[in-house]
Amino acid sequence: MEEALAMKYLDEQEKMELGRHLADYLIESGCVTADALGRGNNFCCPDPAHGDDSPSAHYYDKGPNSCPVVYCFGCGNTWDLFKLIGARENLPDFSQQVERARELYGSRERSADTRPVAYSQPRQRPTVRVEATAEDKVRILQYKLNCQQNILQTDFWRKRGFTEDFVKSHGLGYDVREKRLIIPTDTAYVARATQPDERIRYKNPKGVSVSLTGSEKIKEQGKVFIVEGALDALAIEQSGGKAIALNSVSNANLLVSLAKDSPAEFLITLDNDEAGLTTGKKLAEKLADMGRSVTLVPKAWEPCKDPGEWLEIGGKEVLERKLQDIAKPHTEVKTEAQEDKETYQQLYERLLEHKPEHAKSDLIEYWERVTGEIRNAVTRLHEAQKFCEALDLWTVAIGQAAKEFDFKTEELAPVREVLKELGKNAQQEADDWNAIFDIMTKLDDFTRDLIEKAVEARKASPLLALPKVQHAGSLDEVLMKLESENFEAVYYAAVKEVCRKQAGTGIFEADKEVVPLLKEKGIGNAHITGIMANSPRLEHLDQQQRLMDSRRFVEYITGSGKDREEAISR
């Protein structure tokens, strides 16, 4: 998202021109001397997070897209100019990296303190961390106190799910002029942009290294979540957990150094992106090597990106249950009879399929099984929790898709309230079926509206969030159901299998991938045409026109048609 936004202001020519300055940046930042680089020598990894003290990195003048890159044989990472700026200067967003690269190497005239140093005059390698001076500390403290007085002049935190009491008690502030939320760290603060069009999302105090948030938890016993951003740590804190935010993946080594004698049980739950997964694995290994109690939980926050998104979309209670789910070991629940397990597993799967025509009867049957025929009390409680989790995920998924299409998410507020009450009732073996049926109906209507908007916008990615797609199973399972009457569900489930690997793919591009997959399974053109003709994408056409357009499109994709331009335009 950040990279896409920055690319609106960065064309390929400028990107290549800036990228060619990677050698300049390596020399100026003290990573390697000009002579060593000229001779093609290896040098220490330039990423502070690696903590490398051996010559394991190499500079390549021509990498992907003809731009120079650095590759480290030790950690296996590759950097172009932008990624390296981000790693060394704590600039996680691509837009920030672009801005810094322009400041250093842009075509405009540079000031003395940003002008690149000549190869013959390399700078000394800077220290990784820059500690605040006494004057810095006074300035930072006064700034934070001033901003705390303005916290009610923004509702950014309220929209993110935080309460007024919480933000005040945790010292959050607001910079009115910069329009940024000021979030305290252990030694300073991070300034989070509140405007969606702001390209640089996070800023740190000038001249001071960013620090951890919540490092005092290192000395406490119990489970402690390790997350990337300060807002994520605060989201966990508000929902009853303990958390430490790195605020930069380069702070992983700082956390390790502070955790030497920690009694805490660390849960590594960094973001679900590539950087988070890589850093999380390395951090877990280093803590384990020190003998610390640590559990790595990859992609802990799916289907959301991070705990902040869980709080924003699902609310405090939903995030609280998610934290409990991550923190507890998943052990198999033993039932008193195997047939009980088979029965409620089948009912649970039917619940997730979410067929409106038998939703109420399924739920009644399901709940009667859980509270009646299943004799083991622990199993009944376990199934009640699973029921609540399914409803939680459903609400979060729809909330994600709603954001994609600017739905008024407050429309979901009554839905969340009913879900919350149902969750309590479920634990107490209540049977308010009218309320359950009403909520199922609302969610079904909302899902149908979202599918229509997704089709209209020619976007397939939001459909990944919808339960009827999310739980469709593998492509093989989808193809086994091709004889069913619900062609729409079959078609979109197939689209899902492609989009799972290519997130953000448009429906048209997904179509081009799905049709060959169906062909590989022996599904003929006529059958594929029938599936596509029943797609909501073509609802504005009459049946004859839908079949004609679908047939032309399938012929185009499979290479059996001649008039490709006409097919693709349709």
TrEMBL record:
Entry-linked Gene3D superfamilies: 3.40.1360.10, Zinc finger, CHC2-type domain
Residue ranges of domain Toprim in the record: 222-302
Superkingdom is Bacteria
- Give the GO biological process terms: DNA replication, synthesis of primer
Name the SMART domains for this protein.
Answer: TOPRIM
- Renumbered to this chain, region (Disordered) spans 106-126
Q: Name one GO molecular function term.
A: nucleotidyltransferase activity
Q: Which InterPro entries match?
A: DNA_primase_Znf_CHC2, DnaG_primase, TOPRIM_DnaG/twinkle, TOPRIM_dom
Alphabetized, the UniProt keywords read: DNA replication, DNA-directed RNA polymerase, Nucleotidyltransferase, Primosome, Transcription, Transferase
Q: Name one GO cellular component term.
A: primosome complex
Q: Where would one find coiled-coil regions in this protein?
A: none
Q: This protein is called what?
A: Toprim domain-containing protein
Q: Which organism is this entry from?
A: Selenomonas ruminis
Specify the taxonomic lineage. Answer: Bacteria, Bacillati, Bacillota, Negativicutes, Selenomonadales
